[in-house]
Amino acid sequence: MDDAAVLTDRVELLPVYDFSEPTESDPARYEPAAAPEPAPLRLVTPDEHPIDSEPAAPAAAAADAPSARQIIEAMLFSSDAPLSAARLADFLDGTPVRVVHGLIDELNATYAASGLSFRIQEIAGGYRMLTLPDFQPWVARLNKHRSQTRLTGAALEALSIVAYKQPIIRAEVEAIRGVACGEVLNRLREMGLVKIAGRAEIVGRPLLYATTRKFLDLFGLADLNDLPPMEALTLKRAPAVAPPLPMTPATDNAAVETQPAARAAAVS
Known about the structure:
The chain has 268 residues and is mainly alpha-helical. It contains eleven helices and five strands; from the N terminus they run αααααββααβααββαα. The protein has a three-stranded antiparallel beta sheet with strand order 3-5-4. A two-stranded antiparallel sheet has the order 1-2.
């Protein structure tokens, strides 16, 4: 086979493309594009697109802002005294008092539906969060425990001296306070705040007192290095009371009253 025949076969194997423009006479190659259908017109109301209003805040920001009911709940939870509805309304930037009453009713309804142990009660001209009477035995036990761990002024003074001067003997504590501290130190030992740390190497070998781990836990200290500077420790003393003036006997008063009369008689 000659070269011309081979070339002819290769040309016939190549695909044939038609680059001519389509015409209307060839419907298979000419399909005019359909015009898009116009969107249906709809009347927009002023509520959907207000003209003279600022754009609405993002929904996420509105969701993050606390509601008035949550603010009332937080304030009553944090307060240690009753809060009146008028005062709550002032904190809510002038919310009407009747609205505050309604929000409190909603909170109590939520507490009741959730089975919570407290309610918002009106007491002493205001509102407070109070536990239900059914939980009184457990609350009484808690109050008893608090009273047992409450420190008096004398106990707090003695405990402060032991904390800063430990280990220290009782005589030194009494010398600093100026009063006997035996009963106070025993009470601190019963509460677990003070312990016996040994005996001093002096005559009589008196007991040495020091603080315990419970003392650190009670005052939120990691160790004794967290104590405030000793200069901040001030012991409150009762003001000195002047001794009462001595009563003048009645006979002396009579003598004093008769002296001017006697002088007058002598002059006359």
